Amino acid sequence: MVFTLLPHLHVYAESTTITCTDVPGRQIYYVDGIAYDTPESHFLRADGIPAYCIQPKIPEIYHPIGYVGEDPGWTKMSELDRNIMLAYAFFGYGFDGERTNERYLAAQDLIWEYLGTTNISRATIDTTQKKNEIRSLVEQLRFMPNLQVVEYNQNVKEGSFFTGEIDGNVPVHVVNTNGSLDNFDVVVENGLLVNVNGEPVSTVVGSDFYVKVAMGQQAKIRFINKLLSRNDEGGENQIIYRSPINQDVIKAGKLHVDSAEINLYAVGTSINLIKRDSDTNLQQPQGAAESFVKTSYELFDETAQIPVGMLNIDESGVSNTIQGLYYSHQYSVKEVTAPTGYKLDTEKKIVLFNQLPNHTNHISLDVLDDVITGNLVFISYL
């Protein structure tokens, strides 16, 4: 799980409006044995946005900006602690149809309990059930996908590129080893979400899915928690506290949870040829032959049954490289034109990329030709 806090926003007293709405259900606070004689609890808003205070001190309406207590060390807390409290605030006042006084009080209790505040007693509303509901939602934020690309036996770390030998022909099987993906929207950018047969689908069901990536393309797969995709007022809840340095009311920011993501790069495979003399094993001709130049081979896709291109040998005995080949396809190489002084090799050579080590995606194939030898004729004069 990756939490990112938006930058702290310091709001000066004269520019911040703290409004307090009476919430029935809590008449007297007992905090660590000390009674706070306040007639009612208060529902806080900071500049119109639902807010929660850190310390269990009730804002006084007569105060110009509302009294929210001193900062108990917000800036000294870990990022995880701050985000858990922001998550309580996010889910506390809830979403459309869930905004009730009971949920607000439950979230405020959870924040204080997380901070270690003890002996908080309440009057008429029991928030136990609502607190359990909010805790359950917050816990779900901890479970971001942990992914594995099955065919290639490699875990994909969040935000990293998996290059492997992915091609645009075989659907790439991705499995979440951290439970179901039901709570996430799976968004594929620059790629296609498919089923096991390579047919397009619109949603992911369960804990695994398939993706096709076109050759040479980089696809990004993002996992967006559905709980955080509800763009309504619930997402605007925030924490407020008073600065220990001055009288500023500080808004601690909004909860923002980064979506998990992986990147798949369809690098494809490639091939070139190295021409050698079959007798000397050198990349230069012998005898009457002067050069391997103009020697050419056809590369053929045996799987798709189509010609791919020509591999032409240069003076150094090395051919051009053909890229963008499919890792899963079978190819063949056959000599079309032999160098001067050499026999044409009529044998078709099969190329299998999927037998290469998993860190390799290129083949340099040695091709050999036999030199043409002359026939000596002995004439006897008797």
Q: How would you portray this structure in words?
A:
This protein has helices at residues 79-92, 101-114, 128-140, and strands spanning 9-11, 18-23, 29-31, 34-36, 41-46, 49-53, 147-149, 154-156, 161-162, 172-176, 184-189, 192-194, 208-212, 218-225, 238-242, 249-251, 260-265, 269-277, 296-301, 306-312, 322-325, 330-337, 349-352, 362-369. The protein is mainly β and 382 residues long. A hairpin with a 6-residue loop joins strand 15 (238-242) and strand 16.
Please write out the topology.
Elements (H helix, E strand, L loop, with lengths): L8 E3 L6 E6 L5 E3 L2 E3 L4 E6 L2 E5 L25 H14 L8 H14 L13 H13 L6 E3 L4 E3 L4 E2 L9 E5 L7 E6 L2 E3 L13 E5 L5 E8 L12 E5 L6 E3 L8 E6 L3 E9 L18 E6 L4 E7 L9 E4 L4 E8 L11 E4 L9 E8 L13
Parallel strand pairs: 6-15, 9-17, 18-24
Antiparallel strand pairs: 1-16, 2-5, 3-4, 5-6, 7-8, 7-10, 10-13, 11-14, 12-13, 14-17, 15-16, 18-21, 19-20, 19-22, 22-23
